Amino acid sequence: MAEKSNSTEKAKAKENKPSFWSGVKREWSKIIWPTKEDVLKESGLVIVMSLILGVVITVIDSGALQAVNWLLAR
To answer: C-alpha angle 12/16/19, rounded to 5°?
Structure first.
């Protein structure tokens, strides 16, 4: 008897449970997408910061190379 009531409870729980895809659709609708202007601004900022960081790393690397060469020449 306990087995029948247990299986009935499981069947009812399964009926009330939303499907995976309806959950995905509900969550997808909550996303706030950035505007085209925001994407362009942020992309430009990433490019500029990457260039600046590249220059800084190049300067530090060149300075370290010069220091090592100077130390080895002595």
So the answer is: 125
